User: What shape does this take?
Amino acid sequence: MEGLESFPEKKLFQAIFENSFEAIMIVDDHDCFVEVNSCACNLFGCTKEELLGRSIFDFLIGTLNSNNKERIQIRYLDGKNKTLKYKLVKDLLPNYKLLILTDITQLKLAEEELHRQHQRVKLFSEVTFKISQALQLEEILQTAVTEVQRILKADRVLIYQLFANGTGMAISEAVLPNCRPVLGVEFPEEVFPEEYRELYEKGRVKAIADVESQQANLIDCLIEFLHEWNVKAKLIVPILQNLNPKKGKGKRTPKLWGLLIAHQCTNTRQWQNFELELMQQLAAQIGIALSQAELRGNLEELVAQRTAKLREANRSLQEEINDRQKAEAALRRSEEKLSLIANGIPVLIAYVDKHQSYRFNNQAYQRWFGFSPHKIYGSHLKEVHGKEEYQKMKQYIDKVLSGETVTYEKDMTFQDGNIHTVNVTYIPHIHKQKKAVIKGFFALTSDISDRKAIERMKDEFISVVSHELRTPLTSIHSSLKILATGKLGNLSPKGHRMLTIADEQTDRLVRLVNNVLDLQSIQSGKVKMNKKACQANELMLEACQAMQTMANERGVTLFSQTVNFLVWADYDYIVQTLTNLLSNAIKFSPPESMIFLSASVESIEQKEKRQTSINYVTFKVRDQGQGIPLNQLETIFERFQQVDSSDSRKKGGTGLGLTICRQIIEGHGGKIWAQSCLGKGSTFYFTLPLLINKGGSFDE
Amino acid sequence: MSDKCILLIDDEEAIREVVQIGIEIEVGWQVLIASSGIEGIAIAENQQPNAILLDVMMPEMDGIKTLSNLKANSQTQLIPVIFLTAKTQAADKKQFQNLGVAGVITKPFNSMTLAGRVSKMLNWDK
Assistant: This one.
């Protein structure tokens, strides 16, 4: 394409000038039109002829500057305005200016609308923000009415809450000082009929420019009411609250909660759409706030419930803590008391764990051995007592750690250098739940030196007295026997009788002395049972043989069962026991009666069922004598406890026989007891460990 | 048995008398008596009795000491000795037997049967 130079210049400009969408004009130094294009004629609404020669300021308001950015307005005869953008070229020709005008009225209107919209959005978001910032419903409502009143510049903005009975009340209000406030005033039911309610419920809004106009179509009573409050124009939007549907049931249903109302009191007012929109949007926000408040209310209720529960839990926890503290204090006091007692008593008290280390020692350890309880805490028994002593203790420690209570006696050297006899008891500390688990043991050691000394003195005393009695008894006994022979001279029958009495009583005194000494020996442990396997049959036969003479004298028959098993026993002591029982039976049997001696292992099956490894033989001595009262069956085994004290004199007993028997049987790990039927006889039983059952006859 | 001679050593006069009379009446043996160990050893040496009945508990020289002296003495060591004692415990009896006595008779005994018991112990009645 060729350049512009190739076109005739004048012709080109002429075409541009005439066809431009811009209004182009040339004005002289006096601002009078010299040339205008058709667009300019259209802009000014005049013909070219009407414009030429006239001043541009006949049409334009304002001044023209050369910076070209200014806007200018054109005023028409009918009063309407247009906004123009202009470009002024001053130095085009000497004394002439080129002026180009563009109509930007629509643009400006659009701009303004945009600005307004922006403002509204800004305002709305501000209000929404303020509402959302407020937590209390009252504050939200107050913010809403205040902001609407401020933006709308209405005389009064109020929130009207509808009550279930059809009445309502203004619960929030923003009102100018020159208007009467309606806050707190209850509106009668009539001013808000049911049909209004239904319409609002569907979301109807109502903008009334003039309450009295026909268009308003208000019921009379409402008009009256509005008069009363001097309302000329009003704008009403419903506040709908989205109710929470019941769980799992349907959609949320809007409920008419109230109305957001703007009043104009000084004059009628044409409400703008944006005002209506603002009100609607705020009403929607209030609706949301109401739902949130409801939710918050529920939440608060929930929180309150939880808080109450927590408080209750807290209280019981506190009570528990108090109780525990009390219990702990009581425990401390109890521990202090126990500690006082434990440290005060003259017994060694210790707790040893399963690894054989001391975990507790009382102060007696300090007093007796100079061991500080703190120093020996945690130390092994071997460390504290030394290797040699520990070897002696070990068998008992092994026993207690296998769950068995152990008691033994030993001699210990105290820190004063003296040797004391002590009694030691180990008690296992067995796990409460797991019985097989031994956690440790308690060791109690008491000084029995004094007791031992007294026992020794007692034993010596009995021994000495018994020995010292024997010598004069020998003389008396022998003298009487010699006299009884009659070889030293004859005595009268009465003299003989006296001699017999003296002889019998001397015999009795001898037995008494022997029994006292026997008992003392067995009890003091001086005598050790020399246990070995014994044929039960031999024991029984020997006892019967020993007593046969006495039985014959009394006319009593002895029956001994033949058995064939071995018992683990001291032969002499068991024969003594059987002899004693037979002697008692003979003494208390009437002439011509019988005494049965038998032995059996009848309890063997029962024992097997209980899986007891030790079986027993039960010996029985049954007589047909006078019997023993039930309440004396146990006491007869105690010292000097005969059924009838006259018996001992009558029968020549000592009152110690059964006590000795019991000592002997218990020394064998057996038991002795009696059963009786008054007038029919008594049976004495004792048990001994069975060694081997050779299948003897068990028949009586 | 009537030719037997017995020596009784006991510090108790009453015992000495009842034993002497009892044995004489029972079997008619001769009973020599001594009130102490020393006196007894002297009599034993001189009279050579068939047996000695020796009390254990005596002042100064007790029966055990007397026995050891008798056993140590070549003139008396073969004479059988029977202890007369108030010690009846098994342990005592065992101790006596170990000392080499022919027997132990515990007090109180019956002097009228004493000779029989001694004969039995010393196998004189066979």
Notes: The mean pLDDT of chain B is 89. Chain B touches chain A at residues 12, 14-15, 17-19, 21-22, 25, 57, 86-91, 106-114 (CB under 8 Å).
